[in-house]
Amino acid sequence: MRVSKSFSGVQVLKDVEFDVRDGEIHCLAGENGSGKSTLVKIISGVYQPDPGGRIELRGAPVRRNSSIGAIHRGIQVIYQDLSLFPTISVAENIAIGQMIAEGDRLVGAGAIRTLAKRATDRIGVSLPLDERLGNLSMADQQLVAICRAFMGEVKLLIMDEPTTALTRKEVDSLFGVVKDLQRSGTATLFISHKLDEVFDIAERVTILRDGVKVGTYDPAELDDDKLSFLMTGKSLTFEPVSPVSPGSAPLLRAEGLSKPGNFADVSFRLDRGEVLGITGLLGSGRTELALALFGLNPAEEGRIEIEGRPAKLRSVRSAMGCGIAYVPENRLVQGLVLHQSVAKNFLLTVLRSLRTRFGLIDSRRQAAEVGRWMGELKVKAPSFDAPIETLSGGNQQRVVLAKWIATGPKILILDGPTVGIDIAAKSEIYSTIRRLAAGGMGIIIISDEVNELMRTCNRIIVMRRGRFMEEFSGSGMTAEAVARAVAGESEAIA
Amino acid sequence: MKRIFRSSETYLLLVIVAFSAVIACINPNFLTLENGFDLLKSYSFMGIMAAGVLVVLISGGMDMSFAAVATVAEYVMALVATRLGGNILSSFLIASAIGAALGLVNAVLVYRFRIPTVIATIATMNVFYGVLIMVTGGKWIYTLPDWFRSFAGINVLSLDGPNGSTYGLSIVTVVWIAVIILSSFILRHTVVGRGVYAMGGCGSDRGPVERAGFDVRGIHLFIYAYMGFLAGVAGVVQALLVQTVAPNSIVGKELSVIAAVILGGASIAGGTGSVAGTVLGVALIAIMNNGLTLMRIPSYWYDVLVGGVIIISVVINALQARRKHRKVIEIERSKA
Q1: Is the pLDDT of residue B132 over 80?
Q2: How confident is the model over A330-352, as a mean pLDDT?
Q3: Predicted pLDDT at A491
Q4: How far is A135 from chain B (nearest CA, A)?
Q5: What is the average pLDDT score of chain B?
Q6: Mutation for testing the B interface, residue in A76, A85, A339 having most B CBs under 10 Å
Q7: Contact between A107 and B327 using a beta-carbon 8 Å cutoff
Q8: In this model, does residue B236 exceed pLDDT 80?
Q9: What average pLDDT does range B147-172 have in this prediction?
């Protein structure tokens, strides 16, 4: 196919020529706003290409492009939000689309089960068909979405960021399914900006940047640096971070923190200006520990000292009082009031400090404060009065960061600081983190992405099943060693 | 088997059995067939409206206007019956058609203009009720035609009481049973019905429902028209039970109907609920009310009790949901 697309005068795709071969696993990579989604929507018939563009399927030109037409031609898309229904059964989620497409009015439990069973057998997975969908893990929900897509004849399966919500192990089993599908002749188009995954599975990688195709590559000729260079047009280099020489008085010292069912016997120290990474699989207790430090999930045993003084972290207020700030894992749910403006979201944490002596809010200082911090963190927003949901993920994350940094914390806890944002935005957040640490703040980063920790942390601790298992720093801190420590135990269990 | 122990209907049934046992110990009249048939008759009205409310709640919506819709339908039906005549079938047809039409007004406000359902239906409740009072001047209708009166007395199944009186399964209860069967068929076995569940599970986001190919507009029209239709039927049932029609007799009952549906396991958040649960919810409300009367406890305790039971059931639901979400980590026994 060869297409261009513009929306109200803005050209989003410029003369992109793109092809997927039969039975191929192809990855479409690019930053947010590079035109990936638009290209996918043209393939799936949601948008029409601009005049002059053409789409061919197995050599035959596609004339009138439409969603339902694309489905009939064997093109299925699994959207990032999966578009599943949490309160009805797995079997119904798989079968209902097909029943609607065939114009059925009545549904029988038996017919639904048969249809769903056929789909799961075809993919070769076993799912609890009678369970409510909402009770399934994200990975199983992803499989449900795939089964649903495979109700009809599928020649090309498009998956939009299928792995963002999955753990490494779940991603591997998803890839297993994709490879099985490939054997039966289905081509898969992945959209992703997780680099390591691209290398794992794709046979060819097409990179878009600002609506232009940069090229199509064999993953063997790409590496991390080259791929991110092609995607961003900038070369992003980083130097490994050396350990901080421990000061005489640690900023934070934790001794024997335990909470049944969460974590056990956790001890560590954090120095001023140090960035400490805590990693581990989902369910290793890393997030629970972070919440404990912020008073949301207090530890039942153990001691915490901040600047040498014992600290009781029983509530968020007491944690904030001790100079701790926490940026949550899921910023959308936990960190932001989505319908409210950028300025209001930012001001939530600092309102108290903006009071005049009559206890009212000084609106001029308020505006100044918003402007200063939004500039500091390079937040791109049409206006500070725009609802925060209109901002891109990277910018939302920056507002959350700004809101906490503005409270002037001594200790900043970041849980998954770059989940769901693109490379350029990530590297800006990394440099912000380093800059804050250089200013003397102690930072704890909780993350799945070992590369992210490698780029920001002085020290990395690996958690498994609620305990600290291994610690890395200096020359022993390599991505391979950390990744092995994370996976180590889980392989034995599986 | 596991499924049975997990469902909220089972717990509700246990609570009902326990309540009944307590009441029966204090007043043996409670557990008579006569009292049972009587409850089934007098709670048909609430039960029919509850089925409609259930559909609205599953879809993630809320309807505050159904009592006003029932009143309007009842009043117009009674006017036609007294002035123009007709028969019981025409009365049901008129009332349910008016109910469905008023329901469609709600559907349009909710679908077309995306007004939050609570607000849209509070507004229409006031409009419907206000117009009715304005037009009728609040006059009661006392004399309903003989055919209307005699229909209400029909028992499908008659039994002789110990002291010469007869009692049995009222035709009114049969109407309720028909509504139960119809509603559960629609919710379980039609694409529209499953669409209602799907829509409720997705909150306010219509995208996934649309992308799956559901006719979202059609589902909205169905939900509120069906609610209105049942409100119309309930209006006739109310007139059959009371044999007078007053513009202010139903309004104010919304909350106890909604309470019954929520007790029956439907979630305000949408996506869950069943007809069986709703019937049990109505049964619990009926038994509590009736039981307190039979135990000679002042009636204001009834409100306190209903409120208390709702709080307890909602808290239990919330706790169960939280338990499911809490990630419990199996802690490593010792450092490897």
Answers
A1: yes
A2: 70
A3: 42
A4: 8
A5: 86
A6: A85
A7: no
A8: yes
A9: 82
Q: Which residues of B touch A160 (CB under 8 A)?
A: none
ipTM score for this prediction: 0.76
Closest of A266, A275, A232 to residue A453, by C-alpha? A275
CB atoms B271 and A285 under 8 Å: no
CB nearest A86 (choices: B201, B211, B327): B201
Q: What is the structure's pLDDT at A151?
A: 77
Q: Could you give the CA distance from residue A435 to residue B290 in angstroms, rounded to a whole number? A: 71
Task: Answer whether B208 sits within 8 Å of A105, measured CB to CB.
Answer: no
Report chain B residues touching chain A, CB-CB < 8 A: 3, 188-192, 194, 197-198, 200-202, 207-209, 211-214, 270-272, 324, 327-332, 335-336
Residue of B nearest to A80 (CA): B208
Residues of A in contact with B274 (CB under 8 A): none
Nearest C-alpha in A relative to B59? A87
Dihedral (C-alpha) A6, A9, A12, A15: value to the nearest 10 degrees?
Answer: 60
Probe site for chain A from B1, B186, B332, B334 (most A CB atoms < 10 A): B332
pLDDT digits (tens, 9 = 90+) for A8-32: 445 567 778 888 888 888 888 877 6
